[in-house]
Amino acid sequence: MGLKTFIQGWPVYRQLTGADPLGRGAAAQSARSAALTARTETADSVARSVCPYCAVGCGQRVYVSDGQVTQIEGDPDSPISRGRLCPKGAASKNLVTSPLRQTKVRYRRPYGTEWEDLDLDVALDMIADRILAARDETWEDVDDQGRPLNRTLGISSLGGATLDNEENYLIKKLFTAMGALQIENQARI
Amino acid sequence: MAEAHPVGFQWVMEAKKRGAKVFHVDPRFTRTSALADTYLPIRAGTDIALLGGVVRYILENELDFREYVLAYTNAATIITDQFADTEDLDGLFSGYDPERYSYDQGSWKYQGHEQQRESEDTAKERETAAGLRHESHGMPVAATTQRDETLQHPRCVYQILKRHFSRYTPEMVSRICGIPVEKFEELARAWTENSGRERTGALVYSVGWTQHSVGVQYIRTGAIIQTLLGNMGRPGGGVLALRGHASIQGSTDIPTLFNLLPGYLPMPHHADHPTFDEWVDSIRHPGQKGFWGNSRAYAASLLKAYWGDAATPENDFCYGYLPRMTGDHGTYQQVLNMINGKVKGYFLLGQNPAVGSAHGRAQRLGMANLDWLVVRDLFMIESATFWRNSPEIATGEIVTEECRTEVFFLPAASHVEKEGTFTQTQRLLQWREKAVDPPGDCRSELWFFYHLGRVLREKLAGSTKPRDRALLDLAWDYPTHGPEAEPSAEAVLKEINGYEVATGRPLGGFPEAKDDGSTAVGCWIYSGVYADGVNQAARRKSRHEQDWVAPEWGWAWPANRRILYNRASADPEGRPWSERKKYVWWDPDKGAWTGYDVPDFEKTKPPSYRPPDGASGTEGLAGDDPFVMQGDGKAWLYAPTGVLDGPLPTHYEPAESPVRNPLYGQQANPTRKVYTHPVNRMNPSPPEPHSQVFPYVFTVSRLTEHHTAGGMSRTVPRLAELQPALFVEVSPELAGEVGLAHLGWAHLVSGRAVIEARVLVTDRLTPLRVDGRTIHQVWLPYHFGSEGLVTGDTVNDLFGITLDPNVLIQESKVGTCDVRPGRRPTGPALLDLVADYQRRAGMTPDRRVPIVTTGAASEAHERTAGGARDGGGDA
Amino acid sequence: MPDANSLYGPLDPAPDAGWVEAGPRMGFFTDTSVCIGCKACEVACKEWNGVPDSGFDLLGMSYDNTGALTANSWRHVAFIEQPRPAGHRTPPFADNPTGPPVSAESAASAAGTVTDTGTVPGVPPGSPEAAARMAAGPEFLGMPGAQPPGRATGAETRSDFRWLMMSDVCKHCTHAACLDVCPTGSLFRTEFGTVVVQEDICNGCGYCISACPYGVIDQRKGDGRAWKCTLCYDRLGAGKTPACAQACPTESIQFGPLDELRERAAERVATLHDRGVPEARLYGHDPTDGVGGDGAFFLLLDEPEVYGLPPDPVVTTRDLPKMWKRAGVAALAMAAAAVAAFVGGSS
């Protein structure tokens, strides 16, 4: 930086030579302030999304920089929400980036007193084994009059209202095929 | 609405700006009340009395929209003379079976339809929540009905309705609800004055209505009013449900529910649906009018989507693979079965029953008695940590070292870390784009269930057991992508939409579904969401670039229709009722229905069309029958079938109430679902003794700042700081009576639990004068539990389990309790306190809650026998 | 009355502060008559600006657990419960059996609950005063009553009730004393006419805090610097709406050119008067008031004090020009000396 540039960038110089003799406006603007821009403008990508809380279905725009969510705000194009969000919707970035988010599989063995680590693949395999065991233990082929039942009442599942339609579809399809009938979600409460 | 759905409330403010009057009815003065023109405090659990009063006001003053009512409702239809009303039978309808606590609906029928017995067993229908099937369609009735267009016949629906509600006078409303007469009249006046040809009124409710032992009848009463006033199928009208989860509508349409398959097809029942044909016929009712006639195609196409190549017409599309219901397999029955050791494994998918479900203690005791539990969530929730951090640990009821439940906590992907559709509360599907990859072990449910299915099928490969065929034959080959092999959500959506098996061409809508195995459709009502191979739910045409109906934003089921039954927005001749309220109308030049929305009618069926004799299916509906999913094309003021607790709504007291029913000897819903179990003791209500042990009414709901069981808000700093503690709102009067100090502690005791909360003394809660007594109500938010940034006792622990008979939803918006100053006891002393209350209230472990509280039961039962003998009557 | 000048009286502040090509002055109009108290503004502000939490304490001031505008809360929604009529509305509790309102006890408790927000002065003890007025009124009969409340019949004393909500924010005064006293030039007037603390300049001297006539600006403990609403200076630069206004579900917070907002606000007041809400009034809209008018002004439904706002704020630097005349020569001399020393030192 040359001396001239340096002096011209100095607030008092700008104050004495510019239109801001009291030095409270243009002359006082710092380099950082002058360079400020909304991080939404420099985002790598924007995903069009929907608020995950209630069922109003407010439109959201999710801004991403360097693989991180940097801002979630209302989508002004939405005819439902017109760009607005409630406190929950407005806290969506805080939701997905919350320090309390769990990102590792946790395992509590029977009678255990603490959580333990477990690999996801191992967990998936263990769960599959337990499903098959519970199914074998509680399978009902027919009722007492010989009519088909094809089911297990040894397995239950609860939840779905926070999930996608595609997910609910696969959940119901798989559980139905394994004969698990006791599938429920928040619509029942 | 401002409280729990603030962004939706902008439209109420918009209406208010244009001069609409806003009424708010709620036990407590909320943020909605603050913006309403008139607020009506109400005793929790008495809405049918209030709404019934409005029905009476309409009928006594003949303020109904008569032209609409005559043409579009069953007001003129004549009912069989075997029918007896609650006015005749002290709170019971004819046909009541006091042994099974359910109705034989034979005496409720339309005149001349007495022989039709599509349902032999309403107790069974209750077990299987059969009422839920009607989300997409009405119950069937035969084509022709007897009508009196003058509405004077003493047994026409109009007159029956009038007699039924004749005692719901403003004074009675006041006596039951605690709403002053003038307030009631202001509401009734405004509602009727703002409905009719030129104006429409909207009715909005949330789970404050559904979570009652008479929840379905609450909504029916609202629907009766809206139908009488001509507010259905018209812009600015309707009965609008504000649902509380992002895709709770979607998870009902594509149900993760025990009694339904996608598109409201019923899960087969072992006795009623042994074969594919019997199953299909129970849905479509051969010979019936209406749009439900094609259900064979929907059913066959679903099974084709499930079992692909293995599903053929010859093997009934693998119908035999479907598991069968034998009764009630709902979430509360499951929990009691867990306590009894019958359930081995449990999946929790983004739901937190330890906090969010009624009777939290039962939930946790059930989970502590499993072999294994899989919790998939964003956060560590109470339902995952019950073995180390539940109230039962403190009381010694659960001992960590002795609790055998194996727990897998699998972190889930958030809504920005996966793509897919949510269905919002008005049936609109909106596709979400994925923004970022999920962190660490976090995965979508799509990933988890796809790969779980893959592993299961690998483990079973080569199995010869018949039970494994359904898994091995399953169509389960979804394309995956990325390093984690994420399945394609779009491929699943395409299967939901349906496609031609031979070519893979996506269907344009459910009329293209076939019953010969040539189409596969995952959810027939969603067919069209992938029409032309385009993801219609991903459409995002700006609201600035289209009209106010915004048909190119997302996609609504069915057929992208935004207002159901919108044929009713035009008069019988097909002309808009008024220029102001025009929406869909008949264009005689084009010979077609047109308008702002997709017409909910056959596009070219003229208003003058009359069905030929004997016509069935859609052909049987006349050109002026707008309610096309109903068998008679009419809106039902009176439901001759399908609603298990009566053809008309009737005021019953909540299962737990400090008040004797002022209208009938029958205290509470005589068909409600009760579970007699030592863990589920219900507080006594009149006419039983000892109800004064629990003198106060409590109700619970949401705060703007939190979400449901708190798993997505107590864990989020921005929200947790806004409402950092559990509190109970009490009126100054109750504070004085009990000795509560603002911001001090109180504890609340029910026959199940005791919880503590900070006290907010506020004028927003008011005592009510009910039947000559002062009744105090308290309110609490139900968001709190023991995990997260801010914690508190779990309010839903106070509730017992009593369910609505139609849909098996629990009564968790009203209960009775005692309120005491100070903090609750801890450890075993807490159990002693509850035991002491149980002892004082006579709540022994083997006590059975009295269901029938009137002497009229035998007479009601007689009417059944008479009806059965004389079937056919004077037709 | 002092003369109008750069520090007092009507003025377009951006050009006055050297922004030669300044656009229209931008600001907020907060219409409290449609506020639903959802606090979306508080959250949206914190999310955008990365503002830390302000404590997890139940304050007992109705639904307000934020307490006040602080360095860690740049929007604050106040909740005021009053046993008073609300315009044309039907009294919410007409004919319900009632006893006396609770006011005093509630407010007294509220005063004792304020805890550390991690800022200075943070939430002053016992404030905002609105809490003390929460339910106070001439009807107050004391607690507890002579007989068990609620069992009395006929004492229908509590029928009127209203719940006021108001999202408060920095007023972005035309004459901003915080800016005038800032010795570092950290506080400055932007080209939008707003007042912004520049976090890279602020040295935490705290002069601005006592200068603010509204008690808005506040220091963050540990950090030491002053923080407040920037009217989302970065978003404005990108042509976007400030985060709070964009989120607001009911358009209670409106953002735009101040001239337009003032027109809109006047119309809104007239409409409300027509609809039987005579108590509707504007606050901070008047360019001739003690701060030359606010860049963020309000429609209120009661006296400003009810919301914890000063009834007649005056810029604390009003008399500065007079003082400057006397100190002018000395100041210039000092400045010249400073320039000489600096240039000399770096060459």
Structure characterization notes:
The complex is a heterotrimer of chains A (189), B (875) and C (347). With 189 residues, chain A is α+β, with helices and mostly antiparallel strands. Helix content of chain A is 31%, strand content 24%. In chain A, the strands form 3 sheets. Chain A has a 3-stranded antiparallel sheet with strand order 1-2-3. Chain A has a 3-stranded mixed sheet with strand order 6-7-8. A two-stranded antiparallel ribbon of chain A has the order 4-5. Chain A starts with a helix and ends in a 5-residue tail after the last strand. With 875 residues, chain B is an alpha/beta fold. Among the domains of chain B are: 10-241, Dimethylsulfoxide Reductase, domain 2 (3-Layer(aba) Sandwich), CATH 3.40.228; 332-417 and 436-453, Rossmann fold; 673-840, Barwin-like endoglucanases, CATH 2.40.40. Helix content of chain B is 24%, strand content 13%. Chain B contains 25 helices and 30 strands. In chain B, the strands form 12 sheets. In chain B, strands 23-25-24-30-22-28 form a 6-stranded mixed sheet. With 347 residues, chain C is an alpha+beta fold. Chain C has a single domain (13-316), classed as 2-Layer Sandwich (Alpha-Beta Plaits). Chain C has helices at 13-16, 40-49, 103-111, 129-132, 177-181, 207-211, 233-237, 243-247, 258-274, 320-346, and strands at 26-31, 75-82, 119-120, 162-169, 187-189, 195-197, 218-220, 226-227, 253-257, 281-283, 296-300. Mean pLDDT of chain C is 82; it is low at 99-111 and 126-156. Chains in contact: A-B, A-C, B-C. The interface between A and B is large, with 118 and 164 residues. Strand 4 of chain A pairs antiparallel with strand 11 (406-411) of chain B, so a sheet runs across the interface.
Q: How many structural domains can be distinguished in the coordinates of chain C? A: 1
Mean pLDDT of chain B: 94
CATH architecture of one domain in chain B: 3-Layer(aba) Sandwich
Approximately how much beta-strand content do the residues of chain C carry?
Answer: 5-15%
CATH superfamily of one domain in chain B: Dimethylsulfoxide Reductase, domain 2
Strand order of the largest sheet of chain B: 23-25-24-30-22-28
- What structural category characterises the helix and strand content of chain C? alpha+beta
Query: Distance N terminus to C terminus of chain C?
Result: 49 Å
CATH class of chain C: Alpha Beta
- Rg of chain C, Å, rounded: 22 Å
Secondary structure class of chain B reads alpha/beta
Subcellular location (chain C): Cell envelope
Cofactor (chain C): [4Fe-4S] cluster
Protein name (chain C): Formate dehydrogenase beta subunit
GO molecular function, one term (chain C): 4 iron, 4 sulfur cluster binding
